[in-house]
Specification:
The complex is a heterodimer of chains A (383) and B (181).
Chain A lengths: L1 E2 L12 H12 L7 H14 L4 H18 L11 H31 L6 H10 L2 H20 L6 H31 L3 H39 L3 E2 L2 H5 L23 E6 L1 H11 L6 E3 L7 E2 L7 E3 L6 H9 L1 E4 L8 H16 L2 H20 L7
Chain B lengths: L11 H15 L2 H20 L3 H7 L2 H15 L4 H29 L4 H24 L3 H18 L1 H13 L3 H6 L1
Helix pairs in contact in B: 1-2, 1-4, 2-3, 2-5, 4-5, 4-6, 5-6, 5-7, 6-7
Chain lengths: 383, 181
């Protein structure tokens, strides 16, 4: 069982996910934004997460250290005297401390005046205004500048000079980011803006959900098509029992010998080429080869080493191992992805009870968009 | 294959049904019409996109609204006016779905006959379910109104024939043609 194999090695037609993705991109183009936008969105989403404080902190420290080490880097055109450097380093720290205290007060005031005061709206606002990122950036810069101020007598003046200049640039960047933060938060004093944001968040979530639904469906079709081509048959009790045969032998397994695997996995990818090899080994002209249906995203607690078998002989250990190795398993996603939809459903119920028709209409419009998205992306027939 | 039939719109239909009942309970006409209009829009979309499953889910909204509002109107006199309005609107909408929404697509020839028949079957099923509920409640006034709407659908289907007949009668003569029609 290969858990979380590197996707780079699975980027070819031997693997089911790759085949399904190709089909998906071909048939459902509107579910995929251009690759450049997609990478940009993923990066933005990654950076704006409140858990990424370490990334920002190391980023700031790395910029300052690199600026100091490069010495005659792109910042080398500004020349300042050693006295000015020492003066600036102390001043910058107090400057930025003042900026952040004012910023926090203003942000607090603006958040108090938000149009929709709910935990989920706050969460969205923080994410879209990059509040956490800006805060981490400011705090990291203060910390680093304080360290520089402390160590100014130990760092060679040539390096310190560039570090101070880099620090000043960082402060300017922070000023710009705070400006952006203010404009974003101000926008959210308007209910319409928050509703637009909620709607787009719902659409992004639905798109992701729809993609995983389509992957499941297409992978079922693709897996079945492959298995049919390989000459395997759907398992059928009556046929498999072969009631016409007189000497039906049955094997009884004691409960204690059956391995109980309580851990649940999700099927992430399937190596079709490898399964094909196992099936070829099993083919001897007489025995029927049976299969179990597998698909991507399927949750299982089974060890998945006997999803292909023959009617008369049991599988040897090497075939079992090959079958087991053909399936990549991963831990299932633990948190629910449909957070925005849940919020919409709750609000919808509340607004209907309160008779707020305008707000109800907003939810209905979003629901209708969901229907449109779903109906425009039905599973297309395989050619 | 757990969860393989899950869709992104799952649960919306239930939300709408529940919301319609709440809106009727509160006598909130604006919210009710907004919800009902949503149902109509999903029905139109399901016809355009050939999705019978969604059509089936929403075609019974009229029946549901009627049954719920009738029961309430019996208890609260102030809701009677709303009930009559809602019931007549439901009958009108059902007629429009069959006459216009489905009829338009029949004309556009985007459907296979069998598929179109399935849509018609469920649309008529929805209408007859509504009529059955009306007559069960012995709501004769509404029944007469709803039946009138229902008859208009059949009038539409042979309106061309009627028109030809009128034309021929006006022209006097050609009795053979009249007979054949």
């Amino acid at each position: 069982m290969r858990i979380q194999n590197n996707w780079l090695f699975r980027h070819n037609d031997n693997w089911l996910r790759h085949r399904v993705y190709k089909k998906l991109i071909q048939e459902h183009k509107d579910l995929f934004s251009t690759s450049r936008n997609e990478y940009l969105n993923i990066t933005k989403h990654y950076i704006s997460d409140k858990k990424r404080w370490w990334l920002v902190m190391f980023g700031v420290a790395a910029i300052l250290v690199l600026a100091g080490l490069l010495n005659k880097g792109p910042l080398g055109f500004i020349k300042i005297s050693p006295e000015t450097v020492k003066l600036i380093i102390d001043q910058r720290t107090s400057n930025i401390a003042t900026i952040i205290s004012i910023t926090l007060v203003v942000v607090g005031f603006l958040i108090n005046n938000l149009a929709i005061k709910e935990p989920y709206a706050y969460q969205l606002l923080f994410k879209h205004s990059y509040l956490y990122t800006v805060l981490y950036l400011t705090l990291s810069t203060i910390g680093c500048l304080m360290m520089l101020s402390l160590l100014r007598d130990y760092i060679p003046m040539v390096n310190l000079m560039d570090m101070v200049i880099a620090g000043t640039y960082l402060v300017l960047i922070i000023l710009f980011c705070i400006g952006l933060l203010f404009t974003t938060i101000l926008r959210f004093a308007n209910t319409k803006e928050i509703q637009d944001l909620l709607h787009s968040e719902l659409m992004i979530e639905a798109k992701m959900e729809l993609k995983s639904i389509l992957i499941k469906k297409y992978s079922q079709i693709e897996f079945l098509k492959f298995m049919d081509n390989q000459g395997t048959k759907e398992y059928n009790w009556l046929e498999a029992m072969n009631l016409s045969a007189i000497d039906v032998t049955t094997e009884e397994k004691d409960d204690s010998t059956v391995q109980r695997n309580e851990i649940v996995y999700t099927v992430k990818d399937i190596d079709l080429n490898n399964i094909g090899r196992v099936i070829n080994l099993l083919k001897n002209g007489k025995d029927t080869i049976y299969r179990q249906q597998l698909f991507l995203g399927m949750t299982t607690s089974n060890s998945l080493d006997e999803y292909v078998w023959t009617s008369n002989s049991s599988l040897d250990s090497s075939s079992k191992r090959m079958l087991k190795n053909s399936v990549v398993l991963t831990a299932p996603r633990d948190k629910s992805v449909a957070v925005t939809r849940k919020y919409f459903d709750e609000k919808f119920e509340e607004w209907v009870k309160d008779g707020k028709t305008k707000s109800v209409q907003f939810v209905l419009d979003s629901y209708l968009e969901l229907y449109k998205m779903e109906l425009e992306n039905k599973v297309k027939q395989y050619g | 294959m757990a969860n393989s039939n899950y869709n992104i719109t799952d649960g919306i239909n239930t939300n709408i049904r529940r919301a319609i009942q709440v809106a009727i309970d509160k006598g909130n006409r604006d919210t009710y019409y907004a919800l009902y209009a949503f149902g109509r829009r999903v029905i139109q979309l399901s016809i355009q996109k050939h999705s019978l499953a969604d059509f089936q889910q929403y075609i019974f909204l009229s029946s549901l609204s009627y049954v719920h509002s009738y029961r309430l109107a019996q208890q609260k006199k102030e809701l009677q006016d709303f009930h009559v309005q809602l019931a007549e609107y439901s009958a009108l909408s059902l007629k429009e779905i069959i006459w216009m929404d489905l009829g338009f697509f029949e004309k556009s020839k985007k459907f296979e006959r069998a598929e179109l028949n399935a849509f018609y079957y469920w649309a008529y099923y929805g209408f007859s379910d509504f009529l059955v509920n009306v007559i069960t409640n012995q709501d004769f006034k509404l029944f007469s109104y709803a039946l009138d709407e229902f008859e208009q659908i059949s009038y539409k289907s042979n309106s061309e024939l009627r028109f030809q007949l009128q034309q021929l009668k006006r022209d006097e003569g050609n009795k053979e043609a009249i007979q054949s029609l």
